[in-house]
């Protein structure tokens, strides 16, 4: 209730009719003024824009989309979207989509069947125009539903049949760092991974072990329950509980590498890289912090976002072409935790 005892009126957006009344023009003239390419006299357009600015009018894109049977919604499907690189990729995708006039909607796929069902109802009930599935472990049912509804779909950082994919070249990066450790004289290598088993994680681990094996070097593997800081601490504890401790460790991502570095320095009193070399993956902003100065492979979230959205646009105009698979090279950002011999070979 208001102080006068009368019910407060419901909030109301400024309408095109309000603009037309203030500008002294017809409702259709306002519509034409805000429609690209529509015919309207310059002096009329000027009056409309002045009135719209004064009233704070914004075009109702939702209503326009419903009339044109287009929602302009692009669903960003992710599990744990707040975690590590995924958060930066989500932000980059949102920026690129907004720039092109789309409406990004983050769909947290959750970790239970109930969460997944609710997420799918939200995404497809609002008639999304396209779907981008991020790395992590969103269930394949999102992909199948998008395909069955004829929606353009792109997967980032995961394998899926018959759809467009954008991936970092995880295997090549893992092979390169295994070779670099060997060239630096390290004989006891380790891999700090995760039991989450997402495609990117599995690819990095397999390629690192395969290259080390080809070079005749054994690798100790320890995995935490997830690719976060806590998981990294558990992996670090397991790796350095052995009698023969590794002298170089490839961490599956930067969060794990941060935990590993803290475990080495704070708990064990070891020096990095003098006692143990550490390399991560992602190049999160924290990797450049003075407390870490982490050598790591860079995934560029903006580049990946731009490539993914470009693929969506191409798929929308040419739906029958063969699926595209883009692999983007990861650049080694050399800082303090490891400097490979001849690091010029580790450019973009």
TrEMBL record:
Database matches in SUPFAM superfamilies: lambda repressor-like DNA-binding domains, Periplasmic binding protein-like I
Classification via CDD domains: HTH_LacI, PBP1_LacI-like
Key words, A-Z: DNA-binding, Repressor, Transcription, Transcription regulation
Molecular-function annotations in GO: DNA-binding transcription factor activity; transcription cis-regulatory region binding
SMART domains documented for this protein: HTH_LACI
Top-level taxon of the source organism: Bacteria
Domain HTH lacI-type: 14-68
Name of protein: Transcriptional regulator
């Amino acid at each position: 209730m208001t102080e006068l005892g009368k019910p407060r009126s419901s909030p109301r957006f400024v309408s095109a009719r309000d603009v037309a009344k203030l500008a002294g023009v017809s409702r259709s003239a306002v519509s034409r003024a805000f429609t690209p390419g529509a015919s309207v006299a310059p002096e009329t357009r000027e009056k409309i824009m002045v009135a719209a600015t004064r009233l704070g009018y914004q075009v109702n894109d939702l209503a326009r989309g419903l009339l044109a049977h287009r929602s302009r919604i692009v669903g960003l499907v992710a599990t744990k979207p707040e975690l590590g690189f995924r958060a930066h990729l989500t932000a980059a995708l949102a920026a690129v989509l907004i720039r092109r006039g789309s409406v990004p909607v983050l769909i947290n796929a959750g970790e239970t069947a109930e969460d997944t069902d609710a997420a799918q109802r939200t995404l497809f009930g609002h008639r999304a125009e396209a779907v981008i599935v991020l790395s992590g472990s969103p269930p394949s049912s999102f992909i199948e539903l998008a395909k069955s509804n004829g929606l353009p779909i792109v997967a980032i950082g995961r394998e899926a049949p018959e759809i467009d994919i954008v991936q970092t070249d995880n295997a090549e990066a893992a092979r390169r760092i295994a070779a670099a450790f060997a060239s630096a004289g390290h004989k006891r290598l380790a891999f700090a991974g995760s039991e989450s088993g997402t495609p990117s994680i599995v690819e990095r681990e397999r390629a690192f072990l395969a290259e080390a094996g080809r070079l005749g070097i054994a690798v100790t593997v320890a995995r935490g329950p997830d690719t976060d800081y806590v998981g990294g601490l558990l992996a670090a504890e397991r790796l350095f509980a052995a009698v023969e401790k590794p002298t170089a460790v490839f961490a599956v991502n930067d969060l794990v590498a941060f935990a590993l570095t803290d475990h080495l320095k704070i708990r064990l009193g070891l020096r990095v890289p003098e006692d143990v070399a550490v390399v991560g993956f992602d190049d999160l902003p924290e990797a450049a912090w003075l407390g870490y100065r982490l050598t790591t492979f860079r995934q560029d979230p903006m580049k990946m976002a731009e490539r993914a959205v470009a693929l969506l646009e191409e798929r929308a105009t040419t739906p029958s072409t063969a699926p595209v698979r883009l692999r983007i090279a990861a650049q080694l950002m050399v800082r303090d935790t490891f400097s490979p011999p001849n690091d010029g070979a580790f450019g973009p």
